[in-house]
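Sample entry (120 residues):
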Amino acid sequence: MKIAEVAARCGLSIDTIRYYEKAGICTAIQRGSDGKRRFSQENLDWLILLASLRETGMPNRKMKHFADLYQRGDATVCERKEMLRDHQKHLELQQSRLSRCRTLLDHKLGLYDEILGGKL
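Predicted structure, serialized as tokens:
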């Protein structure tokens, strides 16, 4: 796959993919005889994971650490699993906070509807 196709499929920009490759956050990407990147399914799957971690607020330094552990192989599975569990806990806390905010906004909007008497 070419970089434009991979970008479209994983939701990251071409510049971000290039940055992740340069920073060592992305798994190794092969190049064709023309020097252009040729992405494997493994590369795409990895970039989809990175896009998800990024979207949920994981900092680049943590993604880099996760990538470094991945490169070291199965001996690091426990540590990688723990990192993802920690991130999952972070997401659960964030979701709880957002839910409280949503409840407050719903309440305020309901009050405004009462004040406006159904106008707007």
